[in-house]
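Here comes my example:
=====
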Amino acid sequence: MRSGSPTPAQRVKSAIAVLISLAVLGGGGVFVGLKAYDWYSEYSQRDDYVGDGRDDIVITIPSGANWLRAADILESNNVIADADTFLDVVNKADAAAKARAKAAGEDESQAGLTLQKGSFNMKTHLPCQTALDRLLDPKYKIILEATLTEGLRWSEIRALLVENSDLTEDDFNLAVQDTAQLGLPDYAQGQFEGYLFPDTYQLPDGNEEGLAREIIQKMVARFKEQAEALDLEAQAAAIGRSPRDIVIVASIIEKEVNAEADRAKAARAIYNRLDQGIPLGVESAFRYGRLMADGTPYGDEITIESQQNSDLPYNVYRNPGLPSSAISNPGWAALEAALHPAEGDWLYWVTVNLETGETVFTADESEFAAAAEQFHQWCAEHDNPVGCV
């Protein structure tokens, strides 16, 4: 083919353009012309889209992927029209980067395009060049998907967020200072502990003012979605409890039992003690109250003297009733158990094996003492691991 001769694709496009003109001039009119134009527009984008894209989509480039794999991922998700066209754009951009490095006297082998793993904010129907630009531009990369497991305390959640973002502990402390800005339900009474729902959250890149609050607001919004799905307020009323009580009980369940079958039993045992005016005697609630009141590390030993001090507002060994706030952030299963407790007369529970989570429930104090001794024996046999203090 001579230099400057039209390609087959160019000749087809020219022919289509002529057909559009003839259709309009021939009296078939606007309708035929528009149909022909639609056909032409679709045809012209068979290898590469034009415009600014359509629908938002998140694309993940896995670890170890190369540009060929990235092209396939983009094409299969309809971000680009054609993988081969995208690779042509990549190769041209790579060659241009190396040429610039060579002209500047730099090592061109270090100047090629680098594909980063991770998740990126994209749109469907993007031109290949735009899709490539987004893969190379840090502002389109989702820095982290933070997974918050059930039963974490705010201090643990905050540490996780700080570790995996550009935000600081001070940023998050400031974010929760004005709880009226967090979107909490009224029954939370301004307390956010217990209302940061465990889930996987995308953390934004950067440290601009307000980002920390946005993250917390997402967690609260997720709690409210789940609360609505559980019909939490109505179900709480049906068993004679307040929504806030349900959240507090669920937060205790998260810290006290692990097995799915034990959650509803623990809920019943808690309600039985509350109804009979018996102090809960829950170690996790005591530890949390002590941590929040005077900063005593959560894992420090609980002394007999502190257990007997009824003046301590968090002393659930001496004072009846629920703690003044949730002690962790519960998930769906714990909330559901708090709303639907099992039937039983249990007043005590003891986890006797920390590896299996085996828990003994009983209404008899002597059986409780025997189970406690069984636990102490297990701890001694296993060199007193964390949780045995």
About this structure: Residues 83-103 form the longest helix (21 residues). The radius of gyration is 31 Å. The beta strands are 56-61, 118-123, 141-142, 144-147, 200-203, 348-351, 359-362.
